[in-house]
């Protein structure tokens, strides 16, 4: 393009806003909360440059950052997960970056480490293992999607001489299953695997689970001996409206020991170079602005809505299932006609909907009615094209 004349973009912004509002009605399948909004931050978000480059714990040469707020965010999330005073963390671009940081840390400490995660873990973990050139063992799950710890024990036993990094999931992408983190730690203990890291990917369910624990759901926080790091997404439960995450370590990672870079005056301890100084503001506004009691209430409301959704779907003949803590209701993939109107992610076993705080009974009722029509109008239709979960496999050990 040789020339780019200025033009009035307002019609485009209006169209995008109208489209987003229209699509929100039938998008109840991805776990982004949108109920908390941040108009009080509009000046800071749109008219001030903030760049939290480098370590959140040293200010560096730059002054236009929000690292003090970032530290508060890490501390609030650290407190929720019962992190000890030695905690260390930062605001990431999302859970994926946090998991990458934890895997890289494991590799630096233990170059021969093998990653173990379940077939229901997020697809990015397979890619990260590939990118970091770390061997990966993908484990079986139970019917509800939680890691099969007996399978883990068997796989660990075959490599007792190798350091292990286990990525446990607290809220798997499709069924919101929670891996039994205490049992994972016990499996390592049993085999005397002391060179180990346990990272909890709590992208969606980490915060809801520590805000409102449920009897029978295993603990996923730092009180579980052996948990070394936890990550949560900000744009999922905390409604930050733009992707971000919070990574917390029990103790400072290997990266925290590096010297400051002379150009920035701050240690390069993060995956990215320049980092958003705005997302810590959104996270702080969501966490401290609303307060913990409001978030507990949000969790209870989401669970109640999910229970309602499961019952409405069962009422129209959909074999809907739900873990007791979950916002997610999952079911065998619905006929393809459903996807014309409703956003329908699937894997080889399930479709789902997720009751984030903004989801209403009106939406659930409309979804159930559409599912009923889809099932009766094409009872023998092939389900939506399935996306495979990662195979149980061992990659280049
Ligand atoms: C279990 C799990 N982990 C990680 C992610 C990726 O998180 P992010 O988008 O914050 O990188 C997701 C996203 O859906 C997820 O479900």
From TrEMBL:
InterPro entries: Group_II_Decarboxylase, PyrdxlP-dep_de-COase, PyrdxlP-dep_Trfase, PyrdxlP-dep_Trfase_major. Keywords: Decarboxylase, Lyase, Pyridoxal phosphate. One of its GO terms (biological process) is carboxylic acid metabolic process. Pfam families: Pyridoxal_deC. GO terms for molecular function: aromatic-L-amino-acid decarboxylase activity; pyridoxal phosphate binding. Its cofactor is pyridoxal 5'-phosphate. Transmembrane segments: none annotated. The modification N6-(pyridoxal phosphate)lysine is found at residue 236. This is Histidine decarboxylase. It comes from Rhizocola hellebori.
